[in-house]
Amino acid sequence: MKIGKKKYYGFLIDADNTLFDFDRAEQEAFLSVFRNVHYSGSLDKAYRQFSFINKNLWKLFEKKKISIKAIRKERFVILLKSLKIKEDPDKLALLFIEELSVKPYLFPHAKEVLEYLSGRALLCLITNGIASVQRGRLAGAGIEKFFQSIIISEEIGYSKPDPAFFKKATADMHLPQFTILCVGDSPSSDIEGGNLAGFDTCWYMHVARMYPPNRLKPDYIISDLNGLKEFAPEIY
Ligand SMILES: [Mg+2]
User: Taking 90 as the threshold, does the pLDDT of residue 3 lie above it?
Assistant: First the structure.
């Protein structure tokens, strides 16, 4: 852990579960899709299973073992099979994406912190999400204007934690690497990825939890986005 308040002139900021309350959007999108499915079991249980499947597929994506296109469908194929439901996974996959892209729920203070930081430093959004979903929610939340650059893995062909993804961010920022802080909730893609790419890192703990002991440690930990303000330079 670093001591004191180093100032940064650039911030790489993750989207899902850092700025956006992804868990809430995912749950609502899933429930609105699944309500029309012929299924007599617990919707809540089905959602928890879906969320577990989804998280594991995104972990495989970070390891380059599955494509985004495959994730969209596969999460429903696996769920339908396990719940023994006969439904078209392609239809559910499409509906889910549509629902997700219109749920731009920001975490508390997200917008105000982006406004504050963007008046003092350059901001770059870094996300592995699905392009249409991320673009839809960025527009819906009205936060695009705060970013110098928006990097979505599906649009550039590289994803976090691949160093090539972070290289694109450095190129877009035109700042020395040591003046940029990488912020996100994911120990593997944001913290370890950012660290290996040469950035100082800040772990946003959106829910109270332990940092996994097998991952490279962040330089800072915050549990409220307001904590980012102290890393921004003063305005003279
Ligand atoms: Mg995230």
Answer: no
- What's the 126 CA to ligand 1 centre distance in angstroms? 9
Residue 61 carries which side chain, given as an amino acid letter?
Answer: F
Q: How far apart are CA 9 and CA 118, in angstroms?
A: 10
- Number of domains comprising the chain: 2
Beta-carbon count within 10 A of 126 CB? 29
pLDDT at 4 over 70: no
What are the tokens at 107?
């975490």
State the Cα–Cα distance between residues 214 and 203, nearest whole angstrom.
Answer: 15
User: Which residues form the domain of 93?
Assistant: 23-101
What pTM, to 2 d.p., does this model score?
0.92
Please check whether residues 201 and 123 belong to one and the same domain: yes
pLDDT for position 235? 81
Cα of 6 vs centre of ligand 1, distance in Å, is 24
Q: How many CB atoms lie within 10 A of CB 139?
A: 12
1 is a domain residue? no
Clarify whether residues 172 and 58 are in a common domain: no
Query: What is the largest distance, in Å, between two alpha-carbon atoms of the chain?
Result: 63
* CA dist., res. 140 & res. 87, Å (int): 30
Question: Per residue in 82-134, pLDDT tens?
Answer: 999 999 999 999 999 999 999 999 999 999 999 999 999 999 999 998 999 99
Q: Which residues are catalytic?
A: 14, 16
Q: Is there a single domain that holds both residue 15 and residue 28? A: no
Query: 189 CA distance to ligand 1 centroid (A)?
Result: 8
- Could you give the 3-state DSSP secondary structure of residue 19? coil
Kindly state whether residue 4 falls inside one of the protein's structural domains. no
User: Which stretch of DSSP H or E encloses residue 48?
Assistant: helix 43-62
